[in-house]
């Protein structure tokens, strides 16, 4: 349980809470591991729990009837998912799967709703988190409806940097970027186009790719260009 408390200190929706309250929350949760590729929750299921990412990355996506995938977001440690259907009582709005080996803390519906009633700070932090998600979704809608493929790939790289990257001396490092197919499914384009555009960005000195590591060399410039 001690570890749970350490990890809860970095969960955005619990950031205002004192130690003794984090201890109580840790006792409510159940830890569970998912291997890379496993589905954690499915679109259209009834929602019964909230998930907090302890470590790993989670892909949020929707599929069409032909099996094509739109990737809505990629979430990392300290972020929550599965809150929407607990709040509005509707079915799961998307499928969430483990993009890497992932460990989560599961808090069941009634316990989560009790927490929201008991600690108004959690509700406010959750609203902040949802507002940030709406901003990102707005950025994606603009990008998908108004930009060409290069602009859409650029926008996806900025979203990834903001979501998963670590800032270091003006550069942003994203360890283990998603596959080019997942990036394509975020940008609404093909894997080949992602590959071509990323090579172009590398030649322009905007990014550097080292294996699965992405270094955004010109973060501010790319933000101006693509947000
Ligand atoms: P819920 O609808 O219960 O189950 C799917 C979850 O995916 C949802 O709650 C949110 O936590 C998450 N989700 C859905 N859409 C997005 C999005 N656009 N960005 C980030 N997370 C999302």
From TrEMBL:
Keyword annotations of the record: DNA-binding, Transcription, Transcription regulation
GO molecular function: DNA binding; DNA-binding transcription factor activity
The keyword ATP-binding belongs to this UniProt entry's keyword annotation: no
One Pfam family named in its UniProt record: HTH_Crp_2
Any single Gene Ontology cellular-component annotation: cytosol
Annotated protein name in UniProt: CRP/FNR family transcriptional regulator, anaerobic regulatory protein
Organism this protein belongs to: Candidatus Thermokryptus mobilis
Residue ranges of domain HTH crp-type in the record: 147-220
InterPro entries, per database record: cNMP-bd_dom, cNMP-bd_dom_sf, Env_Response_Regulators, HTH_CRP, RmlC-like_jellyroll, Tscrpt_reg_HTH_GntR, WH-like_DNA-bd_sf, WH_DNA-bd_sf
The keyword Transcription regulation is assigned to this record: yes
Domain of life: Bacteria
Cyclic nucleotide-binding domain ranges (all copies): 13-133
Record lineage: Bacteria, Pseudomonadati, Candidatus Kryptoniota, Candidatus Thermokryptus
């Amino acid at each position: 349980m001690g570890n749970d408390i350490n990890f809860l200190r970095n969960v955005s929706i619990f950031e205002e809470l004192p130690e003794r309250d984090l201890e109580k929350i840790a006792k409510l949760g159940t830890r569970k591991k998912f291997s890379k590729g496993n589905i954690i929750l499915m679109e259209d299921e009834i929602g019964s729990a909230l998930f907090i990412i302890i470590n790993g990355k989670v892909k949020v996506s929707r599929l069409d009837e032909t099996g094509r995938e739109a990737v809505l977001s990629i979430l990392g440690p300290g972020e929550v998912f599965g809150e929407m259907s607990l709040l509005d009582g509707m079915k799961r709005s998307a499928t969430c799967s483990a993009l890497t080996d992932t460990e989560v803390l599961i808090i069941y519906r009634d316990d989560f709703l009790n927490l929201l009633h008991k600690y108004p700070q959690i509700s406010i932090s959750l609203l902040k988190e949802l507002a940030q998600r709406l901003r990102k979704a707005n950025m994606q809608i603009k990008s998908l409806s108004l930009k060409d493929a290069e602009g859409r790939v650029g926008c996806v790289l900025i979203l990834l940097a903001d979501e998963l990257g670590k800032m270091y001396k003006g550069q942003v490092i994203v360890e283990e970027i998603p596959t080019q197919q997942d990036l394509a499914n975020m940008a609404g384009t093909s894997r080949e186009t992602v590959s071509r555009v990323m090579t172009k960005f590398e030649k322009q000195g905007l990014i550097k790719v080292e294996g699965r590591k992405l270094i955004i060399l010109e973060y501010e410039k790319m933000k101006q260009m693509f947000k």
